[in-house]
Write a structure and sequence with these properties.
Strand content: 15-25%
Structural class: alpha/beta
Distance between the termini: 58 Å
Strand order of the largest sheet: 1-8-7-6
Radius of gyration: 20 Å
Largest sheet: 4 strands, mixed
């Protein structure tokens, strides 16, 4: 057994915080701003959950997107706070659905309508590549799929990108990749190649 020495704590007074030491920039590996579902549980919700409950939970949990599961716990889509705006609720009610019956399945974006990033591409990309690729889509989130294992491997979020790049954003309005691109582009001439 190896002896481990103990030392006096005398000149240290700072705590390490994740945001302080991420050191992410446009040339960092894209995986540094990726939420990997093999390391972090995905944030999920059932398709039959009432909308009033979904909004409240998302606000309390400080999340803007949840992955939607069916009754067999299979992935069927995603829902974001933006999908739950009043205009969308009025459309559903006008189509004949009673307000108390509104649930996730009425507002979610089904998996057949989603665009994703392949995990193998993400592994070969930089943060700048991700921002550049997604800026024109104005997305807040993008799922990452491992096509070899046939799994949704994780997610890239505009909020995580902004935090990692140290960009001050008004998070009451989720930043889109377009917002981040504009912020970085205005401060980093090396990023003009993505314009």
């Amino acid at each position: 057994m190896k002896n481990i020495a103990l030392y006096e704590l005398n000149q240290l007074d700072e705590l390490a915080w994740p945001e302080t030491f991420q050191g992410i920039n446009l040339e960092s590996p894209a995986t540094s701003v990726f939420t990997d579902f093999k390391k972090t549980n995905p944030i999920v919700i059932q398709a039959d959950t009432p909308i009033s409950e979904v909004e409240q939970r998302m606000i309390e949990e400080k999340v803007r997107l949840k992955i939607v599961l069916d009754t067999s716990n299979k992935f069927i889509g995603v829902i974001s706070l933006d999908d739950l705006n009043d205009q969308e609720k009025i459309k559903r009610i006008a189509s004949g659905i009673e307000r108390p019956d509104l649930c996730v399945r009425h507002f979610m974006r089904g998996k057949e309508d989603l665009k994703v990033i392949l995990y193998r591409e993400l592994q070969r990309s930089s943060v700048g590549d991700v921002v550049g690729m997604l800026k024109t889509n104005g997305l807040q989130h993008c799922l990452v799929v491992d096509s070899e294992e046939h799994q949704i491997r994780g997610i890239v979020s505009a909020s995580d990108l902004a935090k990692g790049l140290g960009i001050a954003m008004n998070l009451s309005v989720s930043p889109s990749f377009f917002d981040i691109f504009n912020e970085v582009y205005s401060e980093a001439p090396l990023f003009k190649a993505y314009g």
